[in-house]
Design brief:
The structure holds two protein chains of two kinds. By secondary structure, chain A is mainly alpha-helical. Chain A is built from 19 helices and eight strands. Chain A has helices at residues 2-6, 9-16, 61-64, 74-77, 85-100, 106-134, 139-159, 179-203, 207-213, 221-226, 231-235, 243-246, 267-290, 310-315, 317-327, 371-377, 379-383, 390-398, 402-406; strands at residues 21-25, 37-43, 46-53, 168-169, 172-173, 339-346, 349-357, 363-369. In chain A, a hairpin with a 2-residue loop joins β4 (168-169) and β5. The longest helix of chain A is centred in the N-terminal third of the chain and has 29 residues, at 106-134. Chain A starts with a helix and ends with a helix. Chain B is globular. The chains are: A mainly alpha, B alpha/beta. At the A-B interface, α1, α3, α10, β6 and β7 of A face β3 and α3 of B.
Chain lengths: 407, 163
């Protein structure tokens, strides 16, 4: 009785079809990592069809975006892809700054670029580590988390938060970075290649892992393009597109790096792309940290230079007035009565924001274009003809983050 | 180039072109929407539908139409983008589906229906995407309160014994 309440009639029909049976996968299953449900229709152990049922984590983020101002909403976007929180913040404020027409200071651009790339490593490590864990290998997960811990500490040093950093602000950053932050990043750049080699050896040459991912979950180039796939999923199917190169934002024009692609279109190719991207990311971070420009982190706006330093706000009346002048609703930056779509290359793919402005410092409509949503829509296509045990491999390889999926 | 090609093909239709920070936008009447999308995909090679969403203009001053449905097109090889939008009003919130042009439109259209109540005619599996099927309102409309209408407290409770 209860099942009928939840299930759609066509799924029940499928169950009645002769020879096949229906399996409910999730919403609570270790391999879904968060909360999502799959209704699998199986013929023996072969997946005939898969229907994702999502929305368990829907929390109305886009509705909240209409009542919080551009700086406040950053705390919400953080919680979308919580595997790489800062990547969301950078994408959100990239869109806001494009709407207002702000060109960031060089120092701010470099710091954001470093964080964007750290987040890429952060995300890929978990994606790979967790998938290997689902496929039965525990060790690689621990190696991945060792490196993730170092990145958490870098985030904490810069923003005071390990996880939901809320570090970016319209036209700048919450705090400037310190010299010991620079030293920490340098140390990470130095130590990461060795950890990478260990991790890579554990995963990519692991015979069980290779056999369970190669030729599984195929996605052709045409399917990837028509289905809206972006990021590592599209690049593993041979789509040569990376917004960092094709629509350069932040400081990506200043650095030398390669776009990583593969032709396989299977799970293994997607993991390969992620592994290669981590190497390129560390290359970008190295170039950025060695050439980190000085100067302010906030842009000048109508003679006011963004939010003042917190110590100044708490300790002087001038600082407090300065802060007040920036925060009061009628004294903020001028926002055009326009709409904008701006996207960045987040670890998962094209993370875009469509903001409709109405002249205030709040969005009239704050739409998120989450890469997970379009990737998960492709899941049934990848799954058809695979075995039941391949479900976890394919799920892991497209890196579905349910909070971003459902918002 | 895109502009002239579209003007040539749809000589009798009036388009409103605009540009803001390098993004090209065009407003098309709802009845020519599908033809234009199809033309963009096959002739102009916009092979990816990046995003599809709606905006409720209930609180926009001087807005004549309520719902704006926006399509974000992308040509993957060259990176060229185009934004197509159309205006529709209640009670006729129906648009033709784009799933037969780009398969990626599937979930995007379902989400658009889920949040705004825009119906996409011809969609192969048309139902709510994120919210429960029995949900009665469309929460991203401007007349829907942020606190909800108590739906959360009225969800059917299924006890173990019944299940």
């Amino acid at each position: 009785m209860a099942l009928e309440l939840i299930d759609s009639p066509d799924l029940m029909d499928a169950q009645k079809r002769e020879g096949s049976w229906t399996l409910n996968f999730g919403p609570q299953h270790p391999a879904t990592h968060t909360t999502l449900r799959l209704v699998l229709q199986l013929d023996g152990e072969t997946v005939v069809d898969a229907e994702p049922d999502i929305g368990f984590l829907h929390s109305g983020f886009e509705k909240l975006g209409e009542s919080l101002d551009f700086n406040q909403y950053v705390t919400i976007v953080d919680r979308m892809n919580y595997i790489s929180p800062m990547a969301n913040e950078i994408a959100w404020h990239h869109a806001v700054e494009k709407l207002i027409g702000i060109d960031l200071t060089p120092r701010c651009k470099y710091i954001r670029t470093i964080f964007a790339e750290l987040m890429r490593i952060h995300d890929h490590l978990l994606c790979l580590g967790a998938c290997v864990l689902d496929l039965g290998g525990v060790t690689a997960f621990m190696y991945a988390f060792n490196e993730r811990e170092a990145i958490y500490e870098i985030c904490e040093r810069a923003s005071g938060q390990r996880f939901h950093t809320s570090y970016t602000r319209v036209g700048g950053l919450l705090y400037d970075v310190t010299d010991d932050w620079v030293a920490m990043v340098r140390k990470f750049v130095k130590s990461f290649p060795r950890a990478y080699d260990d991790f890579s050896g554990l995963v990519m040459k692991n015979r069980i892992f290779v056999e369970r991912t190669r030729g599984v979950g195929l996605l052709t180039r045409e399917q990837a393009i028509a289905g809206g796939a972006t990021g590592p999923v599209a690049r593993a199917s041979g789509v040569e597109r990376d917004l960092r190169r094709d629509e350069p934002y932040l400081a990506y024009n200043d650095f030398d790096f390669d776009i990583c692609c593969a032709r396989g279109g299977d799970c293994y190719a997607r993991f390969q792309v992620r592994m290669m991207e981590m190497q390129q990311s560390i290359k970008i971070i190295e170039q950025a940290i060695e050439n980190l420009p000085g100067g302010p982190i906030f842009v000048e706006d109508n003679g006011k230079s963004g939010l003042p330093d917190k110590t100044e706000v708490y300790r002087s009346i001038e600082g407090l007035i300065h802060h007040f002048e920036n925060i009061m609703p009628n004294r903020q930056m001028d926002v055009p009565n326009e709409s904008i779509y701006a996207a960045t290359e987040s670890p998962n793919g094209e993370l875009g924001y469509y903001i409709v402005g109405n002249g205030t410092f709040k969005a009239y409509r704050a739409r998120t274009r989450p890469p997970s949503l379009l990737h998960f829509a492709l899941f049934p296509l990848m799954m058809r003809g695979c075995m039941l045990s391949d479900v976890v491999a394919v799920l892991g390889s497209i890196n579905i983050i349910a909070a971003e999926l459902d918002r | 180039m895109v502009e002239s090609a579209i003007a040539e093909k749809f000589a009798t239709t009036k388009f409103a072109w605009s540009e803001f920070r390098d993004q090209k936008r065009v407003v098309v009447p709802a009845e020519r929407l599908w033809d234009l999308l199809k033309f963009c995909c096959t002739e102009l090679k916009f092979n990816q539908l990046t995003d599809l969403t709606a905006v409720d203009h209930l609180e926009t001053p001087d807005a004549t139409d309520r719902f704006e449905v926006v399509y974000f097109l992308l040509e993957v090889e060259s990176g060229k983008r185009l934004q197509i939008s159309t205006f529709i009003n209640e009670p006729d919130l129906v648009l033709p589906t784009a799933t037969n042009i780009w398969s990626g439109a599937d979930w995007l259209e379902r989400e658009c229906y889920d949040m705004f109540g825009v119906v996409f005619k011809g969609h192969p599996n048309f139902k709510r995407l994120l919210l429960p099927q029995e949900f009665a309102s469309f929460p991203l409309r401007k007349d829907y309160p942020q606190q909800g209408r108590g739906e959360r407290h009225n969800f059917p409770v299924i006890t173990r014994a019944e299940g």
